[in-house]
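## retry 2 of 3
previous attempt timed out at serialization; input unchanged, resubmitting
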Amino acid sequence: MTPSNRRNLLVILLTFVTLTASLSLLANSGRNPQSGQCVFDPATSKCAVQGGGFCTAGNGAGNCAMGENACWCYLPNYNLSVSPFAPPSQYVGKSSTSTVTVTPAPGATGFLGDVNLSVSCPSSAWICTLPAKVTLTSSAPLSSTLTAIPPSSSTCDQTYTITVTGHDASPSAGPTNGPQSATLKVRCDYNVGPDWGGGSIALLTFLSLLALWTAWGVFRGKRTIPR
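## retry succeeded, writing output
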């Protein structure tokens, strides 16, 4: 075989392999019953929905992505958890924190992408802060810190509920296990601990000494014998 023929044969073989791989990928894209609208685009080497938009799977909608050598429809399959607040009870105007964790569902149906987080406080007077979103890029969970500060208008010794939920970029909203909540008890009793600060402790010490001095003066007055 001449060198020219060998080159032509090599080109033919490479072309055949490329076409076979593309056809196999296109066939596999329909293998998953939840990815009927996801197809492989050889021009971009990416999975996408024919005509654009979101893919559908059962009663949900999601995004197309490559998985196990096929195009899959990734639904918003992720769980949300909210840890107990630390400290579990707090004075008005002071902060307490909780950890919000987003965990993708295991397997090929787990969601990958942005999860927008939102927090619902007991009232608009509360200060609640939480990062706007987390981006899931693998099966590893991601955590964010939720901070809550009760206002002075709170009812003393009452327990309040703070709720967190998530929304992905597709029309399907909410985590698989639904919105999650944590409670925080508001304290209004007087705190003589370190939270008062050095100035308040010094004032308390001064008042204590003043009370002792007054009591000692009264005691000495009673013991004075008139002449």
